[in-house]
Amino acid sequence: MKRIIATALAAASLTAGITTATITTGAGEASASERTDQGQGRPDRYVLPGDAAGSRFEGIGVDQRRGLFYVSEVTGGEIHRGTARDADAEQWLAGDGTDGRYTARGITVDRAGNVYIAGGPNGIGNPDRPDLWVYSHDGELLAALRVPGTADAFLNDVAIGADGAAYFTNSNDPQIFRVAPAGDGWAAELWADASGTIDRVAGFNLGGIALSADGSAFVVAQGNTGALWRFATVDGAVSAIDTQGADLVNADGLVRQGNELTVIRNFSKMVATMRISADGDTVHRVAQRASDPDRVYTTAKVLHGRLLAVDSKFDEQPAPSGPYDVVGSPWA
C-alpha cells in the first residue's frame, strides 16, 4: 500500500484550547434560556459563530467522554466546539490558512479525544496544502497530511474503525484512505480503491461513512447515485448493498444507532431510516420522511443519546446569514 509519513505541512501557529468568539444574534433569535429543553436541561439548538460575510458548515464529530461536539466550517476552515449543555458554541481552531486549512468538511473524534478533519478540496491544485489534519483534544496539531497517489482528492467524511484508525472517503475517486500513528509520526495510506467496481461519475461520489455494528465493514454512501456500498474492514473488498429500491440520491451523512441506519439526504431535504444487519450487508424496512424545508442538513452525530444535526446553509445564495445552528433531535 502507498504510504506517506506525517509531519506538519504548515508552520502557522495554533492557539490551543477554546478561543472565545463574539456571536452576533440575528433578528428574532431566541435567548439561550428559550432554546433550552427544560426537561433534559439541554438546548434544542446550538448557535455557531459565523463570519460577517456569511458562513457555511458541514461536518460534526462528538467526544462522548467529555460531552463535546465539533463542527467544521466550509467557508474558511474554522472548527467550532460546543458542549452538550451550553447553547452557544465557540471557535476552537482558526481557519483562513491556519495549519494550511482554508476549508473543512467531515470531522470525527476517536476514543482518546483526537479530532480528525477532512479537507474536502483544500489540497486540490495546491500541493503545499494538506488534505487532512489531526489534533489532540487540547488543540495541539498532531498531523497535517497529503494523501498518497492522487492530486485531486476531495476528502469528504471520516469514521473511526474497529482498529482505532481513521478512514476518510474520497468524493472524486472511489477510494478510502486510512490514517493512524506510525513510528514517531502519523501515516496516511490508500486503504481501498474500488475503481473496478464503483464508477466515478459527475458530482459527489463517496461521502458519508459509518462502521457496521459488528465492526466487520464500513457502510459508505455515494451521494450522486444514491447507492450504498459495503467495504469489508479485513481487506477493503467492496460490494453493493441492496437498498430495496429506495431513493437515496443526495445521501450525505450516515448515522448508525444499533441496527438502525439514518441517511441524511441534504438538498433533497429528506431523511431515510432503515434496518441494517450487524455486518452491514443487508438493509430492509426503509422509511423516508421530510426534514425541515428551511434547512439543508448535511450530517449528524449522537451525543449523550441525542442526535445533533448540522444546518449547512448551503441553500442560501449568494451569501448565507445567521443564526447558524446545530439542531438537537431534528426529526424526532
Detailed description of the structure:
By secondary structure, the chain is an all-beta fold. It has a single domain (3-13, 43-328), classed as Neuraminidase (6 Propeller), CATH 2.120.10. It contains no helices and 27 strands. The strands form 7 sheets. A 5-stranded antiparallel β-sheet has the order 1-16-15-14-13, with no helix packed on it. A 4-stranded antiparallel β-sheet has the order 4-27-26-25, with no helix packed on it. Strands 5-6-7-8 form a 4-stranded antiparallel β-sheet, with no helix packed on it. The protein is globular, with a radius of gyration of 18 Å. Pfam families: SGL. It comes from Agromyces hippuratus. This is Sugar lactone lactonase YvrE. InterPro entries: 6-blade_b-propeller_TolB-like (IPR011042), SGL (IPR013658). Keywords: Signal.
